[in-house]
Amino acid sequence: MAEKGNHSSNLNESFSGALLRRASFSGSLLFALVCLLLLFQATKIIQNQPEGQLPVTTWPDSMLIVMILISLGKAVGAFVTCRRERRCPPEEVTPSLFDEEMAEEDGLGILGHFVEKEVKEAAATKEEVSATGVEVKRDYKIVVGIALVLLFYVLLIDFIGFALANVAFMASFLVVTGERKLLRLVLIPLISTAAFLYMFVKVIYVSLPLGMWFFDEITVVIYKLLRIY
Amino acid sequence: MDYFVNILGWLGTGFATILNPYTILMMCFGMFVGLLAGALPGVTMVMAVVLTLPFTYGMDIVPAIMFLFSIYCGGVFGGAIIAILFNIPGDPMNVATTFDGHPMAKKGQAGLALGIAICSATIGGFLSALLMTFASPLIARFALAFSTVEYFAIIFLGLSTVVLLAGKSISNSFQSVFIGLFLGTVGVESITGAARFTFGSEVLMGGIDWVVVLLGLFAVGEVFEMLATRGGYSSEVAALKKMIRAELPSLKTLWGLRWTIVRCVGLGSFIGGVPGAGATIASFVGYGIEKQVSKESDKFGTGMVAGVAAPELAANASTGGAMIPLLTLGIPGSAATAIMLGAFLLHGIQPGPQIFQNSPKMIYTLFSGALFCQLILFVMGWFTINLMVRAMRIPEHIMCVFIIVFAIFGSYALKSNISDVWIMLASGYVGYIMRVYGYPVAPLILGLILGPLAEDNFMTSMYHYHNNLGIFFTRPISGVLMVLAIVLIFVPFLRKLKSKRRLETAT
Fold first, then answer.
1. Option in A122, A154, A204 nearest B301 (CB)
2. Most buried of A95, A149, B27, B473, CB within 10 angstroms?
3. Are B227 and B397 in contact (CB under 8 A)?
4. Cβ contacts of B365 within 8 Å, gap of 6 or more
5. Which residues contact A51 (CB under 8 A, 6 or more apart)?
6. What is the β-pairing status of strands B187-188 and B195-196?
7. Does residue B365 contact residue B62 with C-beta atoms inside 8 Å?
8. Which of B37, B90, B51, B75 lies closest to B315, judged by CA?
9. First-to-final CA distance of chain A
10. Residue extents of the structural domains in chain B
11. A-interface mutation test, from B408, B420, B450, B457, most A Cβ less than 10 A away
12. Yes or no, beta carbons of B88 and A130 under 8 Å apart
């Protein structure tokens, strides 16, 4: 996944080369399809604008059409570059106009272009190049783990209330991200949830969900213990 | 002359209001949060501003805005401490500070480098706040004559610079801005009351709240990135046992930097005012220009005093510049100023040229606050250096869990509605996927915020001028702005064509 880009100086790219283009091709087509469906949906919107006023869908429709055009352009660009790559070695490929890696080379934008040389020189004089020049390696397992924990957390809030859900969430988040010290796993969620509850309910007056069934009673007991109620 | 005396008079009143213990306490607290967020790698200034927004719901407008502005200023400077001492930029805007700051620290001049950074940040921030104070009323007076046509042209120009400056791939930036513009149309349309893209859901009727989206993109998305890419640098930080003390640079050193100050503050303030560009671009451009004009250009990167001062001056000068379009036109050019717009709107105040007439007292109180904020930056920057270094030892995952909980509570607190938490979460996931595939998130946010404004102005103009698109080009001011915007959109394509040709001739 982290193969190096072959004909660009984009150092910040982790997905590059053929893989990126394949993802870009299918992703763009999928995106165009979603936009097309939304455009169809727009035809069903009930319109009651006054005489002489453009339809209320004018603006969103124009946005959707531009998005579809860009997506198709990107898909074609990715496709053409892929074809060229198959025919000749990657070093000799000139990417098509719409392709990703032909864009800004340093990530500093147009303004940065005026000082590109100076910045690169300065970065090179130091032993390690930071920020613009570190290849990113990502650990996707942890991302999926946290994403799932978060999903369950928000699902649970309505049922068991913010107080309990938050303690459970913080503890499981810490476990997923590699915390193994029992003391931290217990104390951090308990103390900080208490502090959060106090701050939001007592100080900023936000009424947080209490929970259903018997959980609301538990939450109320917790609030009483914390002297919020 | 009357103009200056008038402003000075208002400033005096402003200072009298701002110098009350509560506001000063809030500013100090904000500055501390900002410095901390700037110093901790992965925790960005924008993240800090958006996470603390819910706490301003209960405050008055002046302390609320000053609190957020202090976080903004502190966040822009905070990373410099770590950048100089450990060569780790706390925020992307401090990368340029590492170029000469760290070599200075290695030569044993860490204290001096820190002192110069703090002084430059304060001077940059102060001068740009002064510029903001004196330029804003003029711009606002000019902007009073603008009609919906000019407003649309300004927003259009703003969005095109955002696209141009945001990321590495222009087509991705375009996609991003259009997704934002489209999401801005979800909900009940303001003129006719037609429900657009709500799919029968009551939650979507009110539209997608961009504060919630910001929380998702900048808190949840960033946490994913932080944990997915976390690396170990704590050993270097842990090894630093001794206390660091900043050294005040001599007056002679500062006098030697006078032209650097003029150049970088001017440049930084200007870049700050350009939508899409901010402290990061300002710091790089400031550094680069300084290297270009310096007589000792080849010594840059080895620990030059001007190399530390230039990026800090420019980055902190961008803060005042960025406030100008927000206050005078009501158009934010960056995520941080967008959140401040959110705070204004939550208090029922719409920034724009009218506030200079309707509530001059409030606006000049804010200006005095912005000037006073720089003093707080100096004092707190000076005395919290060691605290910031210690804060680096907080394990990343523990920091992350707090960020997420803040984001969840914050999005819930907005309307006491769990569906906002879902939207926040969804934007976090989407934001992370966008980041992985190289789609910049800033255009999306600005599209979402400016979209409804753009649509309103566009539709009203069309109605008044009988659906004649030419009106945007025939009125002088809007014509110039529109042409400029269109030229800007085509610049990257021309550059691409050029580099494509270069590549082709090379092979």
1. A122
2. B27
3. yes
4. B13, B14, B17, B18, B62
5. none
6. antiparallel
7. yes
8. B75
9. 53
10. 2-143+150-464
11. B408
12. yes
User: If you average pLDDT over every residue of chain A, what do you get?
Assistant: 71
Q: How far apart are the first and last CA of chain B?
A: 63
CA distances from B183 to A66, B173, B178, B441 (A): 14, 15, 8, 13
Please classify residue A216 by burial: count the beta carbons closer than 10 Å to its beta carbon, then call 0-12 exposed, 13-18 middle and 19+ buried. middle
Q: Which residue of B has its CA nearest to A151?
A: B425
Angle between helices B360-383 and B305-329 (to 10 degrees): 160
Q: Which residues contact A173 (CB under 8 A, 6 or more apart)?
A: A146, A149, A150, B397, B400, B401, B404
Q: Which of B64, B31, B61 is nearest to B48 (CA)?
A: B31
Q: What is the pLDDT of residues B25-58, one digit of tens each?
A: 999 999 999 998 888 877 888 888 888 887 887 7
Percentage of chain A exceeding pLDDT 70:
64
Tokens 């993109």 -> residue? B217
Q: Is B91 helix (H, G, I), strand (E, B) or coil?
A: coil
Strand partners, B195: B188
**pLDDT tens string B400-427:** 888 888 888 888 887 778 888 888 999 8
Cβ neighbourhood burial of A104 (10 Å; 0-12, 13-18, 19+): buried
**Contacts for A65 with CB less than 8 Å, ≥ 6 apart:** A39
Picking from B165, B400, B405, the nearest residue to A177 by CB comes out as B400
Do B408 and A154 make contact, defined as CB atoms within 8 angstroms?
A: yes
CB A66 within 8 A of CB B178: yes
User: Domain coordinates of chain A in residue numbers?
Assistant: 17-103, 143-225
